[in-house]
Design goal:
This protein is α+β, with helices and mostly antiparallel strands. The chain has 4 helices and 7 strands; from the N terminus they run βααβββαβαββ. A 7-stranded mixed β-sheet has the order 1-2-3-4-5-7-6. A hairpin with a 2-residue loop joins β2 and β3. The two termini are 29 Å apart. 34% of the residues are buried.
Amino acid sequence: MIYLRPATMEELPLIMQIFTEAKALLKADGSSQWQSGSPNEETFKADIAANEGYVLIVDGQVGGYLALKAGTDPNYLVIREGSWHLQEDYLAIHRVMISSKFRGKKLASYLFSNLLSLAYAQNKFYLRIDTHPKNNRMQHLIKKAGFDYCGLIEISGDPDPDRYAYDLKLGGR
């Protein structure tokens, strides 16, 4: 059985292990994303405390994580070489990662499908996400999930700040 549910503080050590694995994979792929100290354990604690952190449960085990954040993301206020398709309330998707135990099993597709269902159930029909230009895996997953490329945003405080930005309007409403 595979499903998405809110993360708990008790799962933080598992989430941090998945983060360490994902960070190493990004580095091996030549991406500087997540290499400069952000996100960190405090980021994940804040996600969970705000009920914005979610774990993907795979056969009873934590197999992945993401943050689904409501409100204005300051990094999304300025976009270059393009524009957002809509100017309305959105959920921002951050920190998408899958445990190395489950890598290659197409679980990221389940994760995206579940998060879109979760957004819809919360009456949130517009989503935004970003990723590093060298994070080809995430770019593929984002496009496969139906997101459209919008332009470039910058991550404040990151030494390699450029990120590809995408958005998606859920249909049916």
